Amino acid sequence: MIAWIRKVASCLWPVLLLTACAQMDQRPGPGHLTVEDTAVETGGRSDDAGTPRLPPPALVPPPAPTAPEKVYTLVGSGVPVADALFSLARDAGLEIDIHPDVEGTVTINAIDRPLDDILRRIERQASVRIRREGDVLVVEADSPYLVTYRVDYVNLARVNASTVSVATQISTTGVPGQEGSGANAGDNNSTTRVTSRSVHDFWTRLERNIRAILGAPAGSEESTDSPDVVPNPEAGLLTVRATRAQHARISAYLDGLVRNMRRQVLIEATLVEVTLDDRHRLGVDWSLLANSSAGLDVTQSLLGLNLNDSPFTLLTYRDDDMGLGNIGTTIRMLREFGDVKVLSSPKIMALNNQTAMLKVVDNLVYFTIEADTTTGQTLSLTNFTSTVHTVPVGFVMSVTPAVDDDGQVTLTVRPTISRVTGYVKDPNPLLAQGNVESLVPEIQVREMESVLRVPSGKIAVLGGLIQDKVDRSRKGFPGLSDLPYVGDAFAYQDNQVRRTELVIFLRPRIVEHPEVDARLADLHRYLPEPRRVSGGER
C-alpha cells in the first residue's frame, strides 16, 4: 500500500510543478481602460494618429508705438529765471507756481530738448529747486534744508605710533683739535631713527570734510559752532543742512567714502628660518628658485656703493590660472638651501587704512634690584628694593594696508621676532657684597619695517636677515673636568656655528565680501564641521 502511494506521488509531482510555472490570467480592474474601449474612442486609428497636436506657440505682440517725446526750445541771454520758467511752462501746457524768493537770471540756448533736460540746466545756473506735482511746476529758491545720511562706522579714534631706532656711541679720550692726553672725553654718536605715526579719527575728520564741502573757512567760528553739520557717531547718523547742489556733492563724497572704507584685506604672513648649509653660506640664492620654477619673478637689490639703500629681496609668484600664489610650494623649494623651520604663519584681516596688530609672545619677568646702604655709628644697614619688569618675547607684527582701485595693495608692515639668548648679572657692587644675584635677560630682536606695493593675491618675500648662532657644549669626566687650569684636559668642547636667514612671505588679498563660500573658501577647512543641535541640548 505504501509503495502504491509513493508511485502516485511521483507521478503527480511534475504535474504540480508545471501548474505552478504557468502564467495566471491577470484581469484589469473595473476602473481601467481596456483595449476595446481605446479602439472605440480613437475609431480604430493608431496611437500616433490619435495623439492631439499641440497648438502653435502664441507670438508676443509687437510693442505698441509710443508717442515721440515732446521737445521744446528756449533761447535767451540774461533772462530773469521767473520769466524763462513761465514761458517754458506755457509752451508745455503746464501750470506753474513760483515762490516770491526766486531771483536771478539765466542764459540758455536749448533747441529741441526734453522738458526735464531744460529744467535741470536752469537749476544748475540759478539757485532754484524745481519739482513737478502732476501738471503743476513748483519753483522754490534753493534754500538750505536738512538731510540725514546714514554712515555705518564704529565710533572709535585710534592713534598708532612705532619707532625703529639704532644708536651707537664711541667714546674717545681726547677732543679733536687738542694735543696731549687727559683731555675731556669726546663722543662719536650715530643714530638712525624711523618713526611712523597713524591717527585715525573718522568722525572728527568726516565732520571737518563736510564743512569744507559746504564752504566754511577752516579755523573759523562758523566751522566749529555752526549747526549745519550734526554728527551722531553712536547712532551712525550725519545730519547736514545744505542746498540741493551741496547735497549732491555730499552724497557723491559719502558714496565714495563708504565704498573705500569698507574694503578689507586678508594678509597671510609666513615667517621661515632657513638654516643654511655649507654650500649656501652667503644666503638663499633667489635666482636658482626663479630658474627652476615657472611663475616666479625675483627683484633683488644688494648693498652697493650707496650705503643709505638697505638690501632687500622681493619675490613674486604669479599663477595665471588661479591668480594666487602658493606659499607652501615656495617654502618647500627653500629646503634646497638647508633646513627650513616655520616660526609663525599668522593670518589677519584689516580694514582699508586701518592698522592691525598680531602679538604672540611670552611676557618674560625679571627684577632689577637697587641696594641702598646706610652707615651708622656702630653698623651699616643695606636696604634692597626690587622692581618688576616684563619684556615680550615672541612674534609681533603690525600691518597697515591701503587698497587702490586697480587692485594694488600698499602695505606698511613691521614684523618683529625676539628671543632670549642668555642672562647677564647686574654688576652693582653692593649686590655682590650682599650675595644677591640679579640676572637681566639678553634679548635678540630681529625686525624690519617697510612700505611695499603688492598686487592682490601675489606673494612678496622679504629676506636677507642673516645671523650666526654659536652652540657651545662641554662634556667631561665628572670632577676632573671642573679642576682649575687642568680641567680642559679631561673635557670635550664642541662649538658649532650655524648660519640662519630669516625669510618673510606676505600675501595680501582684497576681500570685498567676507563670506566663507566666496573669497574665504580656502579657509573653510579650518572651521569645525556643522553639528545639528537637538531641542534639549544646550
- Total strands: the figure is 22
Structural class comes to alpha+beta
Instruction: Pick out the low-confidence regions.
Output: 172-186, 218-224, 290-296, 298-325
* CA-atom Rg in angstroms: 44 Å
What is the overall shape? flat
Share of residues in helices: 10-25%
Distance between the termini: 81 Å
The tally of domains stands at 3
Descriptive account of the structure:
With 538 residues, the chain is α+β, with helices and mostly antiparallel strands. The protein folds into three domains: 71-142, 3-Layer(bab) Sandwich (Phage tail protein beta-alpha-beta fold); 149-171 and 185-262, no CATH class; 265-526, no CATH class. The protein is built from eleven helices and 22 strands. It has helices spanning 2-21, 35-42, 47-50, 81-92, 115-125, 202-214, 221-225, 244-261, 286-292, 327-333, 429-433, and strands at 71-80, 95-98, 105-114, 128-133, 136-141, 145-150, 157-172, 186-201, 229-232, 237-242, 264-276, 296-301, 312-317, 338-344, 347-351, 356-375, 380-403, 408-425, 439-447, 450-455, 460-476, 491-511. The strands form seven sheets. Strands 11, 14, 15, 21 and 22 form a five-stranded antiparallel beta sheet that branches. The chain is flat and about 120 Å long. The two termini are 81 Å apart. Residues 172-186, 218-224, 290-296 and 298-325 have low confidence and may be disordered.
